[in-house]
Specification:
Helix content: under 10%
Shape: globular
Strand order of the largest sheet: 4-3-2-1-5
Strand content: 15-25%
Length: 131
């Protein structure tokens, strides 16, 4: 099926493949591929559960393994709470993070990202450091 078609597809690479094998049919592709910028806010649908709100901190976070220049990937904030309606949440404070910031695949490239807002970070919305 094309990436913009809702339904069970690939799982995003937050966890190891062994862990995600059990959940591979739980994530849905909810939007077509799109371009994103640092600070963009989106949502990811977990079928049977609801929407998780996600914010892109940067598309090019460096990590220590891998060859120089190739060791970058997106860094995300995932916010606490599951929503039935992804458009109702208005505040995205660091005090509401579900997990520490996550290095993950580019969800928008796979069509797992429902874009909600594109705006710069405001006071209380970005951690001082990420390591």
């Amino acid at each position: 099926m094309p990436p913009s078609t809702p339904g069970p597809h690939r799982a995003v690479a937050i966890y190891s493949e062994a862990v995600m094998a059990d959940f591979s049919t739980e994530l849905s592709i909810v939007a077509a591929r799109c371009r994103v910028a640092d600070g963009d806010i989106g949502a990811v649908l977990v079928q049977g559960l609801g929407w998780f709100h996600v914010r892109l901190v940067t598309k090019r976070a460096a990590y220590t393994s891998g060859p120089p220049g190739k060791n970058v990937c997106p860094l995300f904030y995932i916010f606490n709470g599951v929503a039935a309606d992804p458009f109702k949440r208005k505040k995205f404070l660091i005090t509401d993070l579900l997990t520490p910031p996550l290095l993950a695949c580019a969800w928008w490239e796979e069509g797992f990202w429902l874009p909600l807002s594109s705006r710069p970070f405001e006071a209380g919305e970005r951690l001082a450091t990420h390591c």
